[in-house]
Specification:
The complex is a heterodimer of chains A (127) and B (185).
Chain A lengths: L3 E3 L7 E5 L4 E8 L4 H15 L6 E11 L1 H18 L4 E9 L3 H13 L4 E6 L3
Parallel strand pairs in A: 3-4, 4-5, 5-6
Antiparallel strand pairs in A: 1-2, 2-3
Helix pairs in contact in A: 1-2
Chain B lengths: L3 H9 L2 E8 L3 H17 L4 H28 L3 H6 L2 E7 L3 E11 L3 H12 L3 H14 L10 H10 L4 E6 L4 E11 L2
Classes of the chains: A alpha/beta (127), B alpha+beta (185).
């Protein structure tokens, strides 16, 4: 299965999806006007990954900002991973948030409450 | 009821960080966000507050962009809208940052929007958190935006109620003004 890499921009995050290693990384800011279009390749990739996943899947999400339309898309992709975690691959989510960014921590906790997936909240210390 | 003229005269007594009147297309929106980011970097406020502000500003501007798009297509007096589609004002007083947006809306959408804002304004912090989770999880995903999460997010991040007003333009259209205040702690 092919890797998928999308380079980040001022409005969109860096995305690195590696099926062989079982690594999924989303990093940066996610404030596109059309989040559905932006996240579509990621959702499509995950559909294929579902049947090509190794035993372990590690997901790292490190967002500086995200808009509300991205928040829905992120939930969608996490729901995909929830399905994959159901017998196909052990999925672990690392939710990174900057020191003092309570809103980002809370957003992670909201996803954790909605989903049946193991979350680890990781604080990024400044400096 | 807040009056739009009152809002604006109130705002002009503040330090205006950015104001805009005109067409709210993607390019304009992106430029405004760039300017805002530079302005915020030079403002002496905590990074925590900057983040909240930037988040709210993104939602406001994208709301404007998505909704203008709708009304331009729907409304008959395109001429007026094309020349002055939206207003946006970002200002600072001693105690708060203020964001004000204005756009034309279809008169058929007024009551629904008014009810929605009243409902969101009636909720406390915990209720809003629960409501946000509910909409996030059950709401329809839309190409236009977050399916109604924007207003909830603005109230949650600003920790203030939304100010708003609807002014009748003609029988088909109203001018909708939204005001968000973020206190400087």
């Amino acid at each position: 299965m092919e890797q998928l890499e999308i380079e980040g921009s001022a409005k969109t995050p860096d995305i690195k999806l590696n099926a062989e290693a079982g690594n999924i990384e989303i990093k940066g800011r996610s404030i596109p006007e059309n989040s559905v279009a932006f996240y579509k390749p990621v959702i499509d990739w995950l559909s294929e990954y579902e049947n090509n996943s190794p035993d372990q899947t590690t997901v790292n999400i490190q967002l500086e900002y995200f808009n509300t339309s991205s928040s829905k898309c992120i939930l969608d992709l996490l729901k995909k991973l929830e399905g994959i975690n159901n017998g196909k691959s052990n999925v672990h989510i690392n939710w990174h948030y900057e020191e003092d960014d309570e809103d980002m921590l809370e957003a992670g906790e909201d996803y954790e409450a909605i989903l049946n997936l193991p979350f680890k909240m990781i604080e990024i210390k400044e400096g | 009821m807040v009056n739009v003229h009152h809002l604006f005269s109130q705002m002009t007594s503040n330090e205006i960080l950015l104001s805009y009147k005109g067409d709210a297309n993607k390019e304009v929106l992106s430029s405004m966000l760039d300017i805002i980011e530079v302005k915020l970097d030079t403002t002496n406020v905590s990074s925590k507050l900057k983040k909240k502000l930037y988040n709210i500003l993104v939602e406001c501007l994208q709301n404007l962009y998505h909704h203008i798009d709708e009304s331009v297509e729907k409304d008959s007096i395109k001429g007026i809208i094309a020349n002055s589609a939206a207003i946006f004002m970002f200002s600072k007083s001693e105690s708060s940052f203020n964001i004000c947006t204005g756009n034309y809306i279809d008169s058929n959408d007024v009551e629904k929007l008014r009810e929605r804002i009243t409902y969101i304004n009636s909720m406390g912090k915990d209720e809003l958190k629960a409501y946000h989770k509910q909409i996030l999880n059950n709401g329809e995903i839309s190409i236009k935006g977050g399916g109604g999460l924007g207003l909830i997010d603005m109230v949650r991040k600003s920790e203030n109620k939304l100010g708003y007003c609807f002014q009748k333009v003609n029988k088909n259209m109203y001018f909708f003004t939204l005001e968000i205040k973020l206190s400087i702690h």
